[in-house]
Write a structure and sequence with these properties.
- The protein is of the alpha+beta class.
- The protein has two domains: 12-157, Jelly Rolls (Sandwich), CATH 2.60.120.10; 165-242, Arc Repressor Mutant, subunit A (Orthogonal Bundle), CATH 1.10.10.10.
- It is 46% helix and 23% strand.
- The chain contains ten helices and twelve strands.
- The chain has a four-stranded antiparallel sheet.
- It is globular.
Amino acid sequence: MRNEGILSQEMLEVPEKPSVLSVLASCSALNTLDEQQREVLCDESFMAYAERGEMIWLAGSTMQFVAICGTGFIKMTRTTPKGSEVAVELLGPGQCLGLIAAIEGRVYPLNATAVTNSWYLKVPTRAIHEVYNSNERLRDSLLRSLAPRLRKAHEMMARMSSEKIEQRLAAVLLILAETYATDCDAGTVLTVPLTRQDLAEMAGTTVETAIRVMSKWQKQQVLSTNHQWITIRSIPALEDLLTA
C-alpha cells in the first residue's frame, strides 16, 4: 500500500517548466544554427505540456510542428496490423521528434506519446523549413545523423518486440544507459530520475510487474536504486537477458 501511495504522488508531480532557449540549446540536432536563426526559432516556438500517456501526435496526421523534448520521455510507436503498439524510439531531454519528416514535407510517420509527465518545445514546421533552407551545415549534419538514428530505431524495435517483460525492461534500461548515464565506482548511473511507473510505461507493463522485476534484480546485484535514481551495476547481466 505504501508503494501505491508514493507512485500516486509521483504521477501527480509536474516537472519544472524549462525555458524555450534552454531546450533549443540542448538539441544537438540543431547545434549548427547561428545566433540569428536561434532567435527566429525562439520567437516562433513555445513550450507545451503533456501528461503521462497523453498523445502528442498521431501517425498519418498533418505535420504542423517539430517537437524537442525538454523534460521527461516520449516514445515513438507504430501500430502493427494486429492493432498492438510497438516502440520504435524512446526520446528524452534534448532530442528532436519529427524533424526529418517535417523537412521532407511528409505526415507524421509514427505516433508520439508522453511516457512521463513532460515539457516539450513546439517548433512550427514553417520555421524549421526556413532555417533548414538557409543553413547548409544543418543539412549536412542531419544527413550524417540519420543512419545512426535509424540503426538505433531498428535495434529498439527488435528489443521491445519480445513477449518477455524482463527483456523489455532490460532493453529500456540499456537504451537509456546509451544516452543518459555516467560511470561511477558502483557502475553506470542513469542521469535522469525515473519512477517504477515511468519504467513500466516505457516497457509496456504494469507497475506491479516492474516493481517485482526491479526488486529481483536488486537482490541479484544487477542494479541498485536510490529514490528515483538507478545505478546499473552489471551491464553484461542486462545484455544477457536480451538473448535469454
